[in-house]
User: Fold this.
Amino acid sequence: MDFEFKALGAGGLAAVEGDALLLVVGGEELPRSLDKPLAALLADALAQGDFEFKTGRCLYVHRPPGLAVKRLAVVAAADASAKAFKAAVAAGMGALKAMGVASLAIARSGFDAALDESHARALVAAVADAVYVYRHTKPSAPAAPKLARVALVAARKDAAALGRGLQRGQAIAAGVALARECGNRPGNHATPSHLASEAKKLGKQFGLKVQVHDRKEIEKLGMGSFLAVAQGSDEPPRFIVMRYDGAAASKAPIVLVGKGITFDSGGISLKPGAEMDEMKFDMGGAASVLGTMRAIAELKPKVNVVGLIVTCENMPSGRALKPGDVIRSLSGQTIEVLNTDAEGRLILCDALTYAERLKPAAVVDIATLTGACVVALGHHHSGLFSADDKLAEQLLAASRDALDPAWRMPLDEEYDEGLKSNFADMANIGGRAGGAITAAMFLKRFTAKYPWAHLDIAGTAWKSGAAKGATGRPVPLLTQFVLSRAG
Ligand code: BES
Ligand code: MN
Ligand code: ZN
Assistant:
């Protein structure tokens, strides 16, 4: 699918060509700037009660009189923001995606403020989201919409900003789609080796340097905590290192670390059966690193980025890690495993120690880490943890800009109390209270050497219920963050 900017010509919106026009309107009344055929059509729809200036209301018109396009969808937006624009485009796509639309024009009318880069990105996100169909293990799924070309029609003076937004939006959307596809594939398909081959493929396609370490090499590296989680499964673990070199080698990299548990049964501390299938999504952090590396490799910002993916299964077996076992992490610190279901932190801690050798400017780990984070924040905000105010603010700014919400959580020393152990340097769980925070406190013990932040995406990486599926979050947030660090 191609996105392009189109300058609004002298003929106005009535002269715009294509299979369909999606017009986002705002305000409380008919925009005065609207050209005649559209104004007449909308005035009539309003008089007939077929349309209202209420958020999400959508009017569909086939062969609209006086317009060059074959179809028209008009959607009301709540306000002039990129967020409202995205919601309106999504609502319009709901009406248009089932139709034979190959070329679509999108425009906005009725607001004083001009569209900016973030609106263009939001548009691409909404369209790409509407046309994604999972079919890898469901060939009978409905065919993807045949939409091939999307034009954002706006004033010529905004061409540069909107063109840039469309370009960034497309790279981000491709990263989101990759993350969704990896997440949606079941545990018997999206194995650690599969994630490694996806990483290699990206390397070939975009010139990233990709190293894949197998169990032997992981042993040699000394990642004892990661290996302890992996030992219960017959599926071999992988440690993946991906490098994007966009700046001088002397420039300290941003390091992204993804949790890649391709299936989390809980291990010997087995999870209850209900909804256990959703633990195939426990590699959402890893998927978001793959997606972000893809977006970055396409946009080529002047910054160095290293993606680290720790990936294995968490399974019960005769060889599996047991409650009470004490393991030795790459950092040398020992860990008493009180619950084998708190495995994410056990694999991440070794990757966080590995990150030290990269002399990073900042490290951000991304993990579907705790059910407690879902209880705290629900499915809208990802949990952001960082002791570094500047880094936290940069990530929050990127989150707002990318319409990929995150909320900062506390990391006070008082929360460390629960991790005390009589048999090791720390336990891998604290009490039930503040579970997302104690998990972050555990990780913090491995991050003393660099600015660090942690994103708990347990509530945001996938949706349950009828819309069950991976979201591709937080690829937009991470990509925007990396772009902002490139200056
Ligand atoms: N992958 C889960 C976290 C999770 C649970 C994400 C439910 C999304 C929905 C993680 O490995 C886990 O099992 N965490 C435990 C930690 C507990 C044993 C301290 C949890 O949250 O229950
Ligand atoms: Mn678990
Ligand atoms: Zn897990």
Remarks:
- The radius of gyration is 24 Å.
